[in-house]
Design brief:
The structure is a homodimer of 285-residue chains. The first copy, chain A, is an alpha/beta fold and 285 residues long. The first copy, chain A, folds into two domains: 86 residues, Leucine Dehydrogenase, chain A, domain 1 (Rossmann fold); 124 residues, Rossmann fold (3-Layer(aba) Sandwich), CATH 3.40.50. Helices cover 41% and strands 15% of the residues of chain A. Chain A is built from ten helices and eleven strands. In chain A, the strands form three sheets. Chain A has a six-stranded parallel sheet with strand order 1-11-8-7-5-6. The first copy, chain A, is globular. The model of chain A has no long low-confidence stretch (mean pLDDT 97). At the A-B interface, helix 5, helix 7 and strand 6 of A face helix 5, helix 7 and strand 6 of B. Chains A, B: Homodimer. Chains A, B: It holds the Pfam family THF_DHG_CYH_C. Chains A, B: Its EC number is 1.5.1.5, 3.5.4.9.
Chain lengths: 285, 285
């Protein structure tokens, strides 16, 4: 029987702490505020927006929505971002991507002020997570993995950690954050030879492969801690991770479930970034 | 007997190719130009400047030096950088660091236009190497390692590579560049447990530990390729690497010497970035 690393439990603990930090800001006359900028009505975006808004309400962070039609021009979007950048009462900005095809992702990302980039999409944020310094914010999902490991008390110093996946939103940033915590980090991916062996030699395994159930029992070994970043829908229409939970859980020491794992922590991290951005404006962080 | 991976040979080949690309630019009326910005007269800086200037001359790239006294104000330095940014006839800028203590490194780095950042010090360059896209330029020493591996025909896809050292100028960027070439990359550092074992399991070992001779025979295994990034001066006043060459060379398949290895390629990479920056201005790269 392995320990189930509950994202919901982590989210609850983070929420409690954020409620207090938000109150401390309000006591100083600052109301932490998230701007949500969305172009169009993609179902994925709407679903994430609902979750983020609910979490903001719970914590006491204000939300201001800026919604543009799917056929809005890039110029219109850039004007909204400029407005967000200039407004001292907005501390963070969540900009949904991918953008419509007629917009240039890089131009739009560049327009956002790095200090309000709570979702980690600007060059400033990427450079910050790469350098291991507080500049902008790391991508929320990557940090959610770190929050789970921290909540459950894992000391990463000297630990061998294998990260499966090299995306810019999870694999690479989580590798840098693990390195910052003094882990010995191995990054593997679709071109890795004998990935099961590379995974088995780790003490901690972070899986962000983006493919349902790809990590089976052959990838794990006793004593391991497994963090499953994947969110997929299986043939029966049920949510599942990148790890074949039923096969892996009996082997390892601890594992995050899907749902109820990493995904449950992500919006908390986002709101935490808004609170930290607000704290930075008044020298509290 | 292992193969000696000669940095001088790589530098000669890169130089030949750069001479041709520079001529092609000149045929179009563009004279690739490097600005060297130096504050004070540190011996390390002067030595590197001599090497870079010599390499520029060999390739046909022009050099313009901007030298400020060690007690220059930050404002004066920012004015020089602004001048470099604005001058369309300057394509790249080498800014020597560390800066004097009375200057703020981040403020100064931020001032440099990323497209002229041929030494990979701006957030744009760091984000580019982290994301694996052409934005700014990677740090020259990290790329020098890649040039050596490329010149000697090593296909990195699926190879296990261990990088020793996690600095922002070598360890982290070379790890990202190796990943971009589809290697399975392990980053280790001073807090790694049993580093010799982590190194022995690699097929390619890149050593940027910053400590003379720290990688001895216990770190290597037969068949390995070893790239030694270190440049140290030993007790006898001789240049030596981070790898104990005499002990390691008989074990491994191939190794870069010090001197005559990675260090010999670095200025070529720098000048190559100037040429590429010039090419980018006219859509040739």
């Amino acid at each position: 029987m392995s320990t189930i690393l509950s994202g919901k439990e982590v989210a609850a603990a983070l929420t409690d702490a954020l409620v207090q930090r938000t109150q401390a800001l309000k006591d100083r006359g600052i109301s932490p505020t998230l701007a949500i900028v969305r172009v169009g009505e993609r179902e994925d975006d709407l679903s994430y927006e609902r979750g983020a808004t609910k979490r903001c309400e719970k914590i006491g962070v204000a939300v201001r929505s800026f919604v543009l039609p799917a056929n809005a021009s890039q110029e219109e979007l850039l004007q909204v971002i400029d407005q967000v950048n200039r407004d001292p009462e907005i501390h963070g900005c969540l900009l949904f991507r991918p953008l419509p095809k007629h917009m240039d992702d890089e131009t739009v990302r560049r327009a956002l002020a790095p200090e309000k980039d709570v979702d980690g999409i600007t060059d400033g944020s990427l450079a910050g997570v790469f350098a291991g310094v507080k500049r902008g914010f790391p991508p929320c999902t990557a940090q959610a993995c770190m929050e789970i490991l921290a909540h459950y008390g894992y000391d990463l110093t000297g630990k061998r950690v294998t990260v499966v996946g090299r995306s810019l939103v999870v694999g690479k940033p989580v590798a840098m954050m693990l390195l910052q915590k003094n882990a010995t980090v191995t990054l593997c991916h679709t071109r890795t030879v004998d990935m099961p062996a590379v995974c088995r030699e780790a003490e901690i395994l972070v899986v962000a492969a983006g493919k349902a159930g790809v990590v089976d029992a052959s990838y794990v070994s006793p004593g391991q801690v497994v963090v499953d970043v994947g969110i997929n829908v299986n043939a029966e229409g049920k949510l599942c991770g990148d790890v074949a939970f039923d096969a892996v859980e009996p082997v390892v020491d601890a594992i995050t479930p899907v749902p109820g794992g990493v995904g449950s922590v992500t919006t908390c991290v986002l709101v935490g970034h808004v609170v930290e951005a607000a704290e930075r404006t008044c020298g509290m962080a």
